[in-house]
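Comment thread on ticket #2218

A.B. wrote:
> Attaching the input chain for the structure job we discussed in standup.
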Amino acid sequence: MKSKTVTRRFTQQLFVLSALVAGIFAAGCATKVTTGAFREVNRLETELKRGVSTKADVERVLGTPNGSGHAILPTDPRPREVWYYEDFEVTGTRAAGRGVVLMDMRQQILLVFFEKEVFDGFMWSSNVHTAVGKQTF
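C.D. wrote:
> Ran it. Output below, let me know if you need it in another format.
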């Protein structure tokens, strides 16, 4: 009886392992994984005017921010309200063997600054990196 239990448990573990490996290989064929559409940063310079545009204008162009807060920058002691936008996209994956998956990703971070409820500028950053994810059992 113990032999059947051990065989059944081994079969279940083998099934789970096979499903995980199949998922890893299928990920290489999957569509892009993203947190949403990438922000069109060029619209900031064409549709928003520093010192004129309002928070409502910024939200119309960029959508709802992922976060917000306040900052005092070292070059200018006047306080600024800051809206934070982030976008992350996995642009490709490929199996590298032995449970390792290589991922190509892109991340954009956008900080929008306001002074007294009016658009006062922005800081944008984007990067492209390869990340390695290793499956552990």
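A.B. wrote:
> Thanks. Noting for the ticket: The first strand starts at residue 33 and ends at 34.
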